[in-house]
Amino acid sequence: MTSESSQLRAAARHFARRRFLTATGAAAALAFATGLPAAGAAQAAELDARKITEDPFTLGVASGDPLPTSVLLWTRLAPRPYEPGSGLPAERIPVHWELAHDERFTRVVRRGLATAHPEFDHSVHAEVPHLEPGRVYHYRFRTGRWISPAGRTRTAPRPGSRVGELRVAAVSCQAYHDGYFTAYRHLAAEDDLAAVLHLGDYLYEYAVNATGGARAYTDRRLPAHFNRETVTLEDYRLRYALYKTDPDLRAAHAAHPFVVTWDDHETENNYAGGIPENGVPPEEFLLRRAAAYRAYWENQPLRLPQRPEGPDMRLHRRLHFGGLAQFDVLDTRQYRSDQAYGDGWQVPGPQSEDPSRTMTGAEQERWLLDGWRASGAVWNVVPQQVVFAQRRNVPGPDFKLSMDAWDGYPASRRRVLYGAAAAGIDNLVVLTGDVHVGYALDLKADFDDPDSRTVGTELVATSVSSGKDGADRPTNWDNLTRANPHLKYYNGRRGYLRLTLDERRARADFRTVSAVTTPGAPVTTAASFVTEAGDPGLRPA
């Protein structure tokens, strides 16, 4: 038994199961397991920031969840990011921030003071109010004699306003050990993006060896504590530090506001609600989930309502971009039913087709459908994690479906599509990650009838690095394209998706790089598709 497992099991035994399976109980168990006081439970002393002798801004800066009159600014102080505690004492540290109209900060419009608390690993989440809608701002942080790199962010347009064009990007799945984050370097150079939508698997729990896996470093060696699976709060915090020291990821965060949601690997592969992939006791897994969720919030540009309580964190939320687009960000991991038939690709049957099964949980499903009924947007966009459309693995009657995707929850998918139709949602776009490939799919009223009505569009963003270099035509390309006539595009290279919306159409550009196992590959537009407002269905651009 590893020391990390022993620590988790000791914490789980310390708390009765009934007490543990509440947010309060899990938070207490998390504190017990890590020696971490609950937030606000202790008043740490304040550090004189002038005593910080090494650059504390090694993890860069970020912004997120743009609203019409406010932005969220993030940083985390870490002079020694690869060490537990990041080279800082368990003391509060004052951090100044400023927001300006220009990148030279000659026209500063807001200044403020935030506190980097040791309880949250010296992360800073500064909400800046009273801003002008629909404009670009520049920001930076300062503590002691140190000034952070500058970031660029932007507010959302005024509510209900007419927006001529909106451009966003979508990314997913960035396994550090599978290659370089070259796609992010190109994404950072994109102009006029309102946001980058991260659709999950921001990090992976798997071990990273001393040479960075497929990165095959020759100029450095990573510490041994990265060469194990993440289980404890310290493990997850260190893993985020490893990822965020990547210069291309830092560049993308500094260039654009991010809207993030998780999938499974931020905690553990293919977990479902409170059920782990491996057969550990549920209280032990929920303690791990609490640690993972806390580290996720600490390391992402998220607002206060998303701060977790124990193993629970409300991540689904809604963003508006004038009258043009409503974004309903989903969490398809925290509330789902367990995968049918033991997970994997299986023949569908009564277990997967049980009408009580849910991908989103009842409350989130109601929230989504209610939001659609109230929507006046031209485009209703749903950033979420796993493939929504049907994907048969082979042509003919002997097909299998992925039990981890919406194919394993067809009743839940039907309720969502019926809800969209009942709400009069004409222009539905689902944005997806997870599968390390790019797809463009028509959403059908009945996937078993290729001639049924097309009711929307699904665009799947390929991975940033997961799966290593990939190929334009993966080995199952022929089977998948023949088995699924609603699949209009399939490419297995790494990269990102660029989505442009206006009142008449949506355009998707699949941007890919030729390699990630070596740095510096160029980017190209592998394919482009459009769908017209009021006439769902993808066509080559």
TrEMBL record:
Signal peptide range equals 1-44
Q: Which SUPFAM superfamilies match?
A: Metallo-dependent phosphatases
Keyword Cell inner membrane in record? no
UniProt keyword Cell membrane, yes or no: no
Segments forming domain Phospholipase D N-terminal: 59-155
**Residues covered by region (Disordered):** 340-361
**Which of UniProt's keywords are assigned here?**
Signal
Recorded hits in InterPro entries, A to Z, give: Metallo-depent_PP-like, PhoD-like_MPP, PhoD-like_sf, PhoD_N, Phospholipid_Metab_Enz, TAT_signal
A Pfam family annotated for this chain is PhoD_N
The record ties this protein, via PROSITE patterns, to: TAT (PS51318)
Domain (PhoD-like phosphatase metallophosphatase) ranges: 169-510
Residue ranges annotated as transmembrane are none
What protein name does the entry list? Answer: Alkaline phosphatase D family protein
Q: Which species does the entry assign this protein to?
A: Streptomyces coeruleoprunus
